Amino acid sequence: MESGWIPVGVAFSLVWVTLGGYMAYLARRMRGIQMAEGLAPALVSDRPSQAPGA
Amino acid sequence: MILLEAAPPPVRTPPNGRTDRTARLQRALGGATAITMLIAVGMSFLYAPPDLVQGQAQRIFYFHVPLAWVAYLAFFVVLVGSVGYLWRKQDGWDRLAAASAEIGLVLTSLVLISGSLWGKTIWGTWWSWDPRLTATLVLWFIYLGYAMLRALTTAPERAKRLAAVLGIVGFIDVPIVHQSVVWWRSLHPAPVVLNAAGPQLPGSMLATLLVGLLAYTLLYGFLLVWRVRIAGAEARVIDRQRQTALGEE
């Protein structure tokens, strides 16, 4: 493999790791604010819990 | 009368239709970005020929240049948002400017990193105090300062006003970055597309670059809509908390 591919691969990976990290940060922030707004799906299942002995 | 004056400001909850529209726009932009980006990446690695002088390393060009282009675009949107905020005093303009500045800062960081890797391969050095590189680093510091100003100023209205002024003044560096290779002697190559003599690239390389420009512009649009949605939702939550606090007093 020609050595010119190595800097291309490293630069491309760094770009996409950074962009992926930024998108993960946005997703986490969005989820947090949606929960604060009461818009996110409830963390607890909607199904009624089974009471002991039921 | 006293009661009226003490009444909390209305909660800025947009109609559900508007929230749905921006969510749909974000999804559409996400889909278009994914498809275009796959084509752009495929073209830059498989379709475009290696450069005669630089060999395979020249392929950094196909994401370094689009990243720089969208960084310029992001800072232009900061300029528009800043002028809009100072003129209309509406928070929506401020949120647009703040969102675009954050994305522009990320993109400029990537321009500097990818350029440094390219420079090491071709020039044999990670960094040179060349006019283009130095002006780009100054641009990065301007918008880092913009982000710090917003984060550290405790009075929100003052922070918005100061950030808007910096967003307008800071944009002056964008044409300086672009023209630096024309105005001063530079290691960095002159523009190959926005050139007085027309594009200086073979057809396959130009097509790959143009698809890359489209893909990264769509990515910027996707990130911008997402970031503005988050800022809007945060403003609504803060309003609601303020209203609740005032109601409890």
The run of helices and strands of chain B is: HHHHHHHH
The first-to-last residue Cα distance of chain B is 17 Å
SSE series of chain A: H
**Biggest beta sheet summary of chain B:** none
Helical residue percent of chain B?
Answer: over 70%
Residue share in helix of chain A: 55-70%
Provide the low-confidence segments of chain B as ranges.
1-11
Rounded mean pLDDT score of chain A: 78
Query: Tell me, what's the shape of chain A?
Result: rod-shaped
What is the radius of gyration of chain A computed over CA atoms, rounded to a whole number of angstroms? 22 Å
Q: Please count the beta strands of chain B (DSSP E, at least 2 residues each).
A: 0
| Percent of residues in beta strands of chain B | under 5%
What would you say this structure looks like, in words?
- The complex is a heterodimer of chains A (54) and B (249).
- Chain A is mainly alpha-helical and 54 residues long.
- Chain A is 61% helix and 0% strand.
- Chain A contains one helix and no strands.
- The longest helix of chain A has 33 residues.
- Chain A is rod-shaped and about 55 Å long.
- The C terminus of chain A is likely disordered.
- In chain B, 77% of the residues lie in helices and 0% in strands.
- Chain B is globular, with a radius of gyration of 21 Å.
- With 249 residues, chain B is mainly alpha-helical.
- Chain B contains eight helices and no strands.
- In chain B, helix 4 packs antiparallel against helix 8 and helix 5 runs antiparallel to helix 6.
- Chains A and B meet through helix 1 of A and helix 3, helix 4 and helix 8 of B.
